[in-house]
Q: What sequence folds into this?
């Protein structure tokens, strides 16, 4: 705070802030400048700071220079006077004018120098664990003398791999391009890009993957786009995409490039996840784990083990193997917590979001809510104003849990927050095949609509479901899971409105869509249970019993031994249907099974570590 105050005073002095500067005011200005520069230079060696070691103008050493300066936590730019040994704090932004060259040395002993001016740099972080910078303009030379946990440029886009690395980083905002040239040692450059694959149903699937490129001394200058590339590759089928990544994996293995081979497996696994090929993704990520264990040590093995646990969790969640998903996500969180955090990454919070979703899918609604709330508090420390998609996901998880517990007003509050965040952050993106709406918005619209139906607000519910249906038809020309979800939501709306026949028709449409798609036992089981309730409402208990039996057959493939609220609800419905047709013994047996499941679910909730 003192630095910020003095910087503002210095700016006023340097700009001639008083109309007429009497002798005392000139002396005061000199005192302020001296105080600022002396206090900066006098910081102890262990402080998180950078010291100016030399200043040149047009190649000639000079004793002082004026630069643009933005203090940490401030947005106002001031003019500051730098001398040799002046100290710059963590979080400061430095603007170097044309013709001037500065050399800075961090408290770790690493050096940075601008080679082209004007140049602009944010001094993000320095400390025993590592350093981080953000190049805003110009060309900067970085010299890494000491081995650190991380040495990053552009929030971990560029990672210096070895002690003794020396490299140039240049940003060209006009061309939306960053350039890196390694003169000693090696760098890993992680850059995002989209790949597009034609799905089996003919629709297009986009996946953003991280491609990692290693640059070593002697390589040509590497040029990378500042934003995800549309497209790194396009594939006419999954088989074509698989062949592409496998070929590059095999080439990397032949070249002895273990890092390249690992990266290709990670990219292939991410594509498989995006195409809902859960088992393929699991196998690929297990191959990646095995290849990493067999490769020579690189120093980041523990980090990637934690990442792989998270990827395996996502594959398990996609395959409806919820207990496995909980196990993998929990392991990922534990392993990430044991590691130094990477600049620009919040992996614990990301996996916390995934773990909350896995708990919710497992039917542990209280546990899911607690995990989501805890993760939300952690995220608020990193992102202001809910400016991250994870806020939407966490609100959706809490909304889903509240809905399943019959708390429709609480669910509506959470789901509306999720929808607002998604509509703000997930605006339509223009891709090569036209305007694509994010599928998460469809799910959020249907969730809000179901909450409205639960509260008896049917006109509002219908409006939400119509919006969801319109967006789905914009994206997909063939039947899709989103169609089934919307029909199921419309069935719920009719059921809550006392319109049993309309509800049955909507559920039948949902089942017809699901029959055309890869098996989804959880969705089928849920729709059949809801259909059974609608059949009871329509006074058709015999057919309702068949629907509840079908629901149980689907659900028991997922939960043969683990208790789940969906199972309990299906047994409850079956008990009611049997009672309505006079099967008292069968009804009592079904009701007893439902009570046992509900007790077991409550016991699991108590044992949940969240």
A:
């Amino acid at each position: 705070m003192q630095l910020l105050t003095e910087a503002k005073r210095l700016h006023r002095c340097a700009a001639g802030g008083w109309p007429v500067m009497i002798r005392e005011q000139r002396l005061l200005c000199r005192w302020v400048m001296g105080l600022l520069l002396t206090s900066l230079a006098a910081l102890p060696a262990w402080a998180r700071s950078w010291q100016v070691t030399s200043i040149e103008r047009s190649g000639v050493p000079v004793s002082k220079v004026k630069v643009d300066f933005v203090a940490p936590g401030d947005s106002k730019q001031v003019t500051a006077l730098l001398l040799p040994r002046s100290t710059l704090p963590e979080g400061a932004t430095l603007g170097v004018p044309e013709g001037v060259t500065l050399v800075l040395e961090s408290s770790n002993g690493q050096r940075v120098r601008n080679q082209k001016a004007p140049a602009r740099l944010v001094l993000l972080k320095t400390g025993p664990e590592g350093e981080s910078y953000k190049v805003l303009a110009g060309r900067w030379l970085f010299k890494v003398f000491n081995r650190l946990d991380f040495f990053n440029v552009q929030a971990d886009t560029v990672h210096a791999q070895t002690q003794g690395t020396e490299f140039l980083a240049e940003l060209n905002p006009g061309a939306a391009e960053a350039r890196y040239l390694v003169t000693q040692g090696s760098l890993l450059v992680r850059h995002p890009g989209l790949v597009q694959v034609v799905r089996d149903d003919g629709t297009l699937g986009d996946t953003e993957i991280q491609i990692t490129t290693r640059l070593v001394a002697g390589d040509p200058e590497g040029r990378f786009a500042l934003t995800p590339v549309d497209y790194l590759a396009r594939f006419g089928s999954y088989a074509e995409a698989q062949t592409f990544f496998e070929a590059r994996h095999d080439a990397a293995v032949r070249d002895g490039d273990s890092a390249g081979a690992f990266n290709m497996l990670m990219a292939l696994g991410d594509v498989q996840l995006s195409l809902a090929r859960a088992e393929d993704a699991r196998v690929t990520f297990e191959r990646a784990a095995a290849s990493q264990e067999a490769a020579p040590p690189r120093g980041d093995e523990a980090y990637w083990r934690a990442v792989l646990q998270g990827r395996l969790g996502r594959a398990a969640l996609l395959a409806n193997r919820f207990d496995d998903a909980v196990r993998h996500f929990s392991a990922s969180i534990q392993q990430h917590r044991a590691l130094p955090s990477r600049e620009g990454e919040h992996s614990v919070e990301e996996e916390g979001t995934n773990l909350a979703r896995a708990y919710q899918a497992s039917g542990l609604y209280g546990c899911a809510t607690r995990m989501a709330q805890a993760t939300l508090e952690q995220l608020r420390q990193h992102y202001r104003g809910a400016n991250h998609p994870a806020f939407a996901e966490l609100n959706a998880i809490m909304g889903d849990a509240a809905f399943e517990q019959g708390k429709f007003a609480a669910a509506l509050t959470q789901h509306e927050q999720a929808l607002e965040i998604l509509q703000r952050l997930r605006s339509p993106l223009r891709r090569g095949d036209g305007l694509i709406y994010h599928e998460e918005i469809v799910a959020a619209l249907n969730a809000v609509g179901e909450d409205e139906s639960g509260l008896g607000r049917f006109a509002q519910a219908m409006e939400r479901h119509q919006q969801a249906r319109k967006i789905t038809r914009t994206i997909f020309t063939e039947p899709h899971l989103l169609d089934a979800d919307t029909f199921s939501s419309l069935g719920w709306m009719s059921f809550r409105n006392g319109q049993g026949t309309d509800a049955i028709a909507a559920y039948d449409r949902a089942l017809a869509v699901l029959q055309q798609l890869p098996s989804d036992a959880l969705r089928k089981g849920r729709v059949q249970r809801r259909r059974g309730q609608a059949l009871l409402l329509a006074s058709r208990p015999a057919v309702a019993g068949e629907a509840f039996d079908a629901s149980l057959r689907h659900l028991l493939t997922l939960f043969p031994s683990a208790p789940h609220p969906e199972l309990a609800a299906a047994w409850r419905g079956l008990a009611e249907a049997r009672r309505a047709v006079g099967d008292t013994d069968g009804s009592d047996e079904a009701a007893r099974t439902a009570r046992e499941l509900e007790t077991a679910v409550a016991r699991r909730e108590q044992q949940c570590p969240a």
Notes: Residues 163 and 193 are 29 Å apart (CA to CA).
